[in-house]
Design a protein that fits this description.
It is a single chain. By secondary structure, the protein is mainly alpha-helical. It is built from 16 helices and no strands. α9 crosses α14. The chain is globular.
Length: 342
């Protein structure tokens, strides 16, 4: 139970900590100053949402997300959200490929080569069908988390640990709702793909509480670090490189590897969700479907990493507000006690 619970926890966290999150660009887009309450609220909403989604996937033994969406929003809206999720998975995986190119450009590696190399390694994930995805995540995500937290703590140490937790001026709390609704879409897609593999309810508790605490803690630490360099972020495609600019080149190299790992796991999760949904429509081996999808995405990476995040992420966050409300309220409207009273 514990092993599987941690495996699902790392699958959830790996789905979210992509190039947008690990680079700091996504967090800065939604949070920033006066966001302590917002991050607390996000932690609670995210944990509850993950529990509802995993519990539904477990009960329905799902292999893809349409049955789960139907339970949450009804058959008519499920069709609309099906297209939204497909669009989200496609566009965010494209953003990951653009992030791969932007990360390796620091070393004068051509954008297209960094993008193509990352895409090829994502294809390799699916040589063993979809089992390779969860196995690689369980190995890479702990390394990714430890590396990111270590870098942020070193930065905070150099600044004298200037943490703040003032709850009196917190006007940015609505950002928690849109940030959670944005991140719910990939969770629905990826968790629904493994619903038939969840063996015990204890796995759900371990995965949801663990991922909620991890995402909330890292978001707070990261946001506090970004506030220290707020005046310089606008000049950088990847804000995390501002944190590292005064450190030895070995730190920048380590950070580039970290960003690439984040890109790799999130791009893999996006392709994983797409394959599970399109399995009935596209015939062939998983790695061939992955190659086809990545080839279609490649030309779209020319729009730019930060530009796509700035436009698409807030848009998806707004569109998914209704889905988030349905997820949070689902336990209340489908509680056994209410059914007995009908």
């Amino acid at each position: 139970m514990w092993a599987n619970g941690f495996k699902w926890m790392f699958l959830i966290v790996g789905t979210l900590i992509g190039a947008g999150y690990a680079s700091g660009r996504e967090l800065w887009q939604f949070f920033g100053a006066e966001s302590n309450v917002a991050i607390l609220l996000f932690t609670g909403l995210f944990t509850v949402s993950c529990y509802v989604i995993m519990n539904l996937a477990y009960r329905q033994k799902t292999t893809q997300y349409v049955p789960l969406l139907t339970s949450l929003v009804g058959p008519k809206l499920a069709r609309a959200y099906d297209w939204i999720i497909l669009s989200y998975l496609f566009s965010t995986t494209t953003i990951m490929l653009a992030g791969a190119g932007a990360t390796l450009e620091v070393y004068n590696i051509p954008f297209w080569l960094g993008m193509a190399g990352s895409a090829a390694l994502v294809v390799l994930l699916f040589i063993r069908d979809t089992d390779g995805m969860t196995t690689v995540n369980a190995f890479l995500i702990p390394i990714l988390i430890l590396s990111l937290v270590s870098i942020l703590l070193v930065f905070q140490y150099s600044r004298g640990f200037t943490f703040t937790f003032d709850l009196s001026h917190q006007h940015n709390w609505p950002a928690a709702i849109t940030f959670t609704s944005l991140n719910i879409l990939p969770i629905v897609a990826v968790v629904a793909a493994v619903g038939n593999q969840i063996k015990h309810r204890g796995e759900i508790w371990i995965a949801t509480i663990g991922s909620g605490i991890l995402m909330g803690s890292i978001s707070y630490l990261y946001n506090e670090s970004l506030l220290q360099i707020a005046g310089e972020i606008m000049f950088y495609e990847i804000p995390l490189f501002v944190i590292l600019k005064q450190y030895p080149s070995i730190m920048v190299i380590a950070m580039s590897v970290l960003l690439w790992l984040a890109i790799y796991t999130t791009a893999g999760a996006g392709i994983f969700g797409l394959i599970s949904r399109l399995r009935g429509l596209l015939k062939g081996e998983s790695w061939l479907i992955a190659m086809l999808l990545l080839a279609i995405m490649a030309p779209l990476t020319t729009f730019g990493f930060s530009s796509m995040i700035a436009v698409l992420y807030p848009l998806y966050g707004a569109i998914n507000l209704y889905l988030l409300v349905c997820i949070v309220l689902y336990p209340f409207f489908h509680h056994p006690a209410l059914k007995r009273n009908k």
